[in-house]
Amino acid sequence: MSNAKRQHYLRRVLANGLGLCAILTGVYAATALAQENYVTAGSAYSLDNNELVYRELYTGLDENQSVRVDYTGPDGNVFASKTLVFQGEPFQPSFDFEDTRDNEFASAHFQGARLVLTSGMNNSQNEKIIFDNARVVIDSGLDAYIQLNWDKLVAGKRLKFDYAMPARLNTVQLEVRKIKGSDSPVYDANYGREWIYFRIAPAKKFSALFADPINLAYDPNGKYLIRFHGRSSIDDDKGGPQDVRIEYEYTN
Question: How many domains would you assign to the chain?
Answer without folding.
Answer: 1
